[in-house]
Structure formats: C-alpha cells, structure tokens
Amino acid sequence: MKSFTKSTLIVLITISSSAESFAPPLIQSRELIRNRYKKRHPKATNIWRSSSSLYSEPADSEFHKPITVKTSETKSAVDPNYYNVDLETAADLWTVSVSADNRLDREAGVPFLDSNSKNYFVDDIRVIVSRDGGMGIELLELAGGRDDDYGLTIVSAVSGNAEKAGIIAGDSIAGVEVNKVSLTDGSDTKVEESREMFDCECRNFDTTIGLLGSFPSEIECLSLNIKRMRRWPKVKVTVQYPPVQCADGVGNEETLDLFAGENLMRALQTRGIVFEDRDAAKCDFCGGKCTVSIDMGMQLMNPMGLTEEKLMKRNPKCRLSCKTVVGHNMQEGKVRLRINLNEWKLDDKKSGFTNPFFNK
C-alpha cells in the first residue's frame, strides 16, 4: 500500500484544509479497486506489451479514431462524453503499449497508454484545473514498482475544481502544461510569457503526484492533458447483393458491425464483401468498382467532397465507398446499402430497387 504525506494530500488530493478526513477513504478506494483489478488481472504489474500483439486495426482498413467535427453546418454531432465508461470498466481496459517502430504520433520504444480491447479507444482531452483550495483529484496506481518510474496511474475520484473542469474517474493524466509570466529587464511594464509542457504519461503514482505538486503557488491553474477511455461507436450496416449474384435459396443480405471512423470500402472488403460489378466503370480514386447506393443512413456518412458531389449529381443516393467514412461525427445507427449496382436488373421487383445506372 502506498504511503501518503499530509502535505501531498492537502495540496493535491483534497479541497479541504484537513488531510486526515480524506486519507482513509482514499486508501480504502484505492485498495478496493486494486484488489478487484488484480483478481481479473493477476499479472497486472507486467503491463509492457509489444504493439504487434495488440489489436490496432483491421488490415488495410484506414481505421481512424472517431472524432467530432464542429462546424456551423453540423447538425448531427454527438457529445463524445456519451461514450465514457465508469471507473471499474476503465481499470479493466487500461494497458501500456510500446511501439516497435517510429510513428507519426510517437517514437519507437516510448510507452503509451492504450486500450486492451478493440471495442474501446483512448481519447485526448485538455482541461484547465484551478489550484485554489486544492485540485480535488484522487489517484490510483494500477501498476508500477519499476526502477524507471514507469507505471499506470489513473484518477479514482474527483471533487471540487477537478470535477468542475470535467475530469472523471477512470481518466489518466498524461501531461501538464503551465503558463509562466515573468518581468524582463527589471521593469514592471515588460512582461514575458512562456509555456512549458511536462510529460507524465504511463508514470507511477509517486511520479505523477510529485509532478502535480512541484509547481510554485503563484501558478493558479494547470492545463492537464487527459487520456480518457471511451467505447467505440458502431454502425450496423446491411449490405445487399444483386439477386443474380446469389445462389438459389441463399439470401442476398449480410449484416455487419462497422466501427465509426472506418473507410466504407476497406471495411466491407476486410469483412468478406466482394465488389464484382462487370459493367461498372473504374473509380478514378481507388481503381476499383466501389460505387454503392445508400438506401438508409446517409446522415451517418461523411459529407461528399466536391469531386464526388459532381460525379453523383444525377445519383444523389450513391456514394464512392472508397471516399466514404461511416459513423461521421461519432454517430451510431443503421445503414442499408446496395453494391454491384449494374448487376441489379429491372425485374428485381421484390427488392423495390431502381438501378440508377441501368441504361439498357
């Protein structure tokens, strides 16, 4: 069990002037969740994993973390907090990964916070927390004990300033940014501002709380880079083949679950959907025959680009699947679409489908 100093609890953990009243609940909650976590993960201290052993994305899927796009014209944006998880779920999901190769967003060999399930993702949030009266953050170390100070520490409870700032239990503090103001040349009229960033991603309890308590009292607030575990929104997609491409007695529909942020064409292909439209022209973007007809759920797709909009001017229900992303603005819902459009015939009356490209 970690030991806590009175000064640490007063400055960082509580918003009270008395540390003693908060120490027992803090230790009890940390130990309770720690025990639950260890029952499910008996090797919890061995948190280092190769990125090759983790689920990252389906092969060639162009699978991106879902985001909200805020514009004056956006009417379908979803509050990302809808996908937040509770503390116990977050504790089960947090893990630390190490990339074997350099990436655009991180260097090889540097530990980073990750999810151990493909159904959840780690989101980035920045909040500003006042230090007036204490920050109101309780921390829980899920894994640690290493000589290099690396570990896994999350927020176990919030109150006061932290709660007002939007931090929730289950978050992990990945970095701290401070704004320093200083006078130059001994004059009280020339002011110089500087911002400093301090990294604490994947650090143990002592290192994390030590950083939060290391800033002088004149710094009134801290800008925290928060990592938050969120459920990955999904879109249920029903794909319809032309009846002529199906064997006798075989249905022409297949229903799939796609993750918000997936490229539609790649997602369908990696799940076994075959684009085989003999008479269709090849797409100038992907070189394939990727046009689909969206019968339901068009609002769940990203807006058309200028070129696609011109190409589909006469067929507004159709999309180039290679240029389409499902679950736009983190939306969930249902989509019904048709593929291989030139294979649909006029006598497919039971489908109620009119082929937009049929010209025979």
What are the salient characteristics of this protein?
Pdz3 Domain, 2 domains, four-stranded antiparallel β-sheet, alpha+beta, disordered N terminus, Ubiquitin-like (UB roll), five-stranded mixed β-sheet, 360 residues, 7 helices, 17% helix
How would you characterize the overall build of this protein?
- The protein contains seven helices and 14 strands.
- The chain has 360 residues and is α+β, with helices and mostly antiparallel strands.
- The strands form four sheets. It has a five-stranded mixed beta sheet with strand order 11-10-14-12-13, covered by helices on one side.
- A hairpin with an 8-residue loop joins strand 5 (137-143) and strand 6 (152-158).
- The longest helix has 18 residues, at 23-40.
- The N and C termini lie far apart (78 Å).
